[in-house]
UniProtKB/TrEMBL annotation, chain A:
<keyword id="KW-0813">Transport</keyword>
<dbReference type="InterPro" id="IPR003593">
    <property type="entry name" value="AAA+_ATPase"/>
</dbReference>
<dbReference type="Pfam" id="PF08352">
    <property type="entry name" value="oligo_HPY"/>
</dbReference>
<comment type="similarity">
    <text>Belongs to the ABC transporter superfamily.</text>
</comment>
<dbReference type="InterPro" id="IPR027417">
    <property type="entry name" value="P-loop_NTPase"/>
</dbReference>
<keyword id="KW-0547">Nucleotide-binding</keyword>
<dbReference type="GO" id="GO:0005524">
    <property type="term" value="F:ATP binding"/>
</dbReference>
<keyword id="KW-0067">ATP-binding</keyword>
<dbReference type="InterPro" id="IPR017871">
    <property type="entry name" value="ABC_transporter-like_CS"/>
</dbReference>
From TrEMBL, chain B:
<dbReference type="InterPro" id="IPR017871">
    <property type="entry name" value="ABC_transporter-like_CS"/>
</dbReference>
<dbReference type="InterPro" id="IPR003439">
    <property type="entry name" value="ABC_transporter-like_ATP-bd"/>
</dbReference>
<keyword id="KW-1003">Cell membrane</keyword>
<keyword id="KW-0547">Nucleotide-binding</keyword>
<keyword id="KW-0813">Transport</keyword>
<keyword id="KW-0067">ATP-binding</keyword>
<keyword id="KW-0472">Membrane</keyword>
<dbReference type="InterPro" id="IPR027417">
    <property type="entry name" value="P-loop_NTPase"/>
</dbReference>
<feature type="domain" description="ABC transporter">
    <location>
        <begin position="6"/>
        <end position="256"/>
    </location>
</feature>
Length: 324, 335
């Protein structure tokens, strides 16, 4: 995976708030701040991992970047084009370049639609290939993701979880996108099948020069697949670093805790665990100051009032923390 | 030698379906000693949860135990009446489920649900049960337990709900706790809390535990002994060190090398080809042979015998016989 330093997608101060309504008149009472100010450059050919616990806004970030959610604030620049305020018609040529792989491939396939038809749909919308050409292309896609021609006429329920995820991948790459958001693509799969799908994603990236935004809670998979990793907490950026730096030298206390919490498949080595107390605070009422201060083992007084600045501590290594 | 709490011998559990009786568990044998944690590892569909439900007598209505015995403290659970089972369940044996939201009743308070087993099994008065409930919630690390007693499950976070489940399961001091993927639905930092909690409680209360999981990391954290199941069969059994450091069955090896290692950037991920067979699939010989990279003639025709690697480690694989023949030493046991 050669990563050149060319920015494919630039995300500037993106925010996504969901209104919470209540009372007799259904007035907007407050907002759930799902994504709260993310600024990122995604480079051509890289795999950028986004990790965090459930509710940290990592999936919403992926969906917002693809234009599946409207922006509350911020700017999206894809390949030099500002697409933040595009209408859906204006977005169409860009959507061809960006695709998504979902977590639950069964929920994202129409149970009444044959696999061949499901895969053909994107080709009908985005290309002007003739019907026999489309069929040919779909069969080529099926082969590419490790399925067979005879699967063309089958329905989603006839496939295993791993096979369905392969169909989801085939659909995402069918119109030759340059950028794919993978939202927990392997977390619903069994470990042996999970490894197959990871290999497939890697192979396809090499072959087509794809750029991935890989949203996951599984830090093992992320280390294996990603070049850079962004850690999120309550919709905000906590740490961003090249993968080896993040795993060998985690600097933000949350990243440390996250890494030390993973059960390692090896016996005998007892590690010192950074214990986090308590749960994730609600994103509708995030703590003032540093969002992590309520669970942070090294929090000081000013952490509860001042929001830490996003700063660089090493080449390509950024954190938001007062104390480190 | 510690005494055995649970002994499962040649358990066969089948399901009635349109295609006839389909075996989900095909002759599983294992035992759990006092104070020991046994992990049952395998992928979905391997029969690990059905094994647990068979022990608990909680099989769905179309499932039945057709063969084998489950001996718990000298009683055969497989032949017990539902009434007798009820007296045992939640009392001597209890279970924690994967999804605490579906296991807790949404319309009753936490307090009601934690008092219930105490009032039924230990015949405590409501007042005493309430006091004991608060103690239990404190034991599983829930802050301000007295207030939590009046809350409903939806008011708690996932980690808290699982702690409540653990408190309920432990309320009558069971001698055996079965935990079916108790941390799978939780985030890693919460998972770490729950694993630490289970490890602490097990020592405190000196109980035995069966932990069902697909996560090899969790196994390494918590297990004393491990059994690996594949397509309804126990294919390898051993102490946790043996399973991780000297796995013998190709499937166990495959499982270990298909989990990406967090600490090793150059970890070579080797997936197992193919997928788990369906319940109704007829496979001759070893049930793993279609996916096994080392399968040879014998694997296609004959179901493998169990071979002993050490006194604790046993493997169901014909490759062992080859090795035995080469080394000339160890002999096959008929376990």
């Amino acid at each position: 995976m050669a990563v050149d330093e060319q920015v494919l997608y630039s995300v500037k101060n993106v925010k996504k708030y969901y209104p919470v309504k209540g009372g007799m008149l259904q007035r907007v009472k407050s907002h759930v701040k799902a994504v709260d100010g993310i600024t990122l450059d995604i480079y051509k050919g890289e795999t950028l991992g986004v990790v965090g616990e459930s509710g940290c806004g990592k999936s919403t970030l992926g969906r917002t970047i693809l234009g599946l959610e409207s922006l509350t604030e911020g700017e999206l620049v894809f390949n030099g084009n500002n697409i933040s305020n595009h209408s859906s018609r204006q977005l169409k040529p860009f959507k061809k370049e960006m695709q998504m792989i979902f977590q639950d491939p069964y929920a994202s396939l129409n149970p009444k639609q044959r696999i061949g038809d499901a895969l053909e749909e994107a080709l009908i919308i985005h290309t002007n290939l003739s019907a026999p050409k489309r069929r040919e292309k779909v069969i080529r896609l099926l082969n590419e993701v490790g399925l067979k021609e005879e699967h063309y006429d089958r329905y989603p329920h006839e496939f295993s979880g791993g096979q369905r995820q392969r169909i989801g991948i085939a659909r995402a790459i069918s119109i030759n996108p340059s950028f794919i958001v993978c939202d927990e693509p392997v977390s619903a799969l069994d470990v042996s099948v999970q490894a197959q799908v990871i290999k497939l994603l890697k192979d396809l990236q090499e072959k087509h020069g794809l750029t991935y935004l890989f949203v996951s809670h599984d830090l093992g998979v992320v280390r294996h697949l990603c070049n850079r990793v962004l850690v999120m907490y309550l919709g905000q950026m906590v740490e961003l670093a090249p993968v080896d730096k993040l795993y060998e030298n985690p600097t933000h206390p949350y990243t440390e805790a996250l890494l030390s919490a993973i059960p390692r498949p090896a016996v005998g080595r007892k590690r010192e665990r950074v214990r986090l107390t308590g749960d994730l605070p609600s994103p509708s009422n995030p703590p003032a100051g540093c969002p992590f201060h309520t669970r942070c083992p090294i929090a000081k007084d000013h952490c509860t009032t001042e929001k830490p600045a996003w700063r660089q501590i090493d080449e390509g290594h950024f954190i938001a923390c007062h104390e480190r | 030698m510690k005494d055995t709490v649970l002994e499962v011998t040649n358990l066969v559990t089948k399901f009635k379906s349109a295609d006839g009786l389909l075996p989900a568990v095909r002759g599983a044998s294992f035992s759990v000693k006092k104070g020991e944690t046994l992990c049952i590892v395998g992928e979905s569909g391997c029969g690990k949860s059905i094994t647990a439900l068979s022990i608990m007598g909680l099989l769905p209505s179309n499932g039945l135990i057709t063969d084998g015995s489950i001996t718990f403290n000298d009683q055969n659970l497989a032949s017990m009446s539902p009434k007798e089972m009820q007296r045992l369940r939640g009392n001597d044996v209890s279970m924690i489920f994967q999804e605490p939201m579906t296991a807790l009743n949404p319309v009753f308070t936490v307090g009601f649900q934690i008092r219930e087993p105490l009032m039924i099994h230990q015949k405590l008065s409501k007042k005493k049960a309430h006091a004991r409930g608060i103690e239990l919630l404190k034991m599983v690390g829930i802050p301000s337990p007295a207030e939590r007693m009046n809350q409903y499950p939806h008011e708690l976070s996932g980690g808290m709900r699982q702690r409540v489940m653990i408190a309920i399961a432990l309320s009558c001091n069971p001698s055996l706790l079965i935990a079916d993927e108790p941390t799978t639905a939780l985030d890693v930092t919460i998972q770490a809390q729950i694993i630490d909690l289970l490890n602490d409680l097990k020592e405190q209360l000196d109980m035995s535990m069966i932990m069902i999981t697909h996560d090899m990391g969790v196994v390494a954290e918590i297990a004393d002994r491990v059994i690996v199941m594949y397509a309804g069969e126990v294919i390898e059994e051993g102490r946790v060190e043996e399973i991780f450091e000297n796995p013998q069955h190709p499937y166990t090896k495959g499982l270990l090398s298909s989990v990406p290692n967090v600490d090793d950037p150059d970890f070579d991920l080797k997936p197992i080809a193919g997928s788990m067979p369906m319940l109704n699939e007829q496979i001759s010989g070893c049930r793993f042979h279609p996916r096994c990279p080392h399968a040879f003639d014998k694997c296609f025709h004959e179901s493998p015998k169990t071979f002993s690697v050490t006194d604790k480690q046993h493997v169901r694989c014909w490759l062992q016989e080859e090795e035995v023949a080469q080394n000339g030493g160890r002999r096959a046991s008929s376990l």
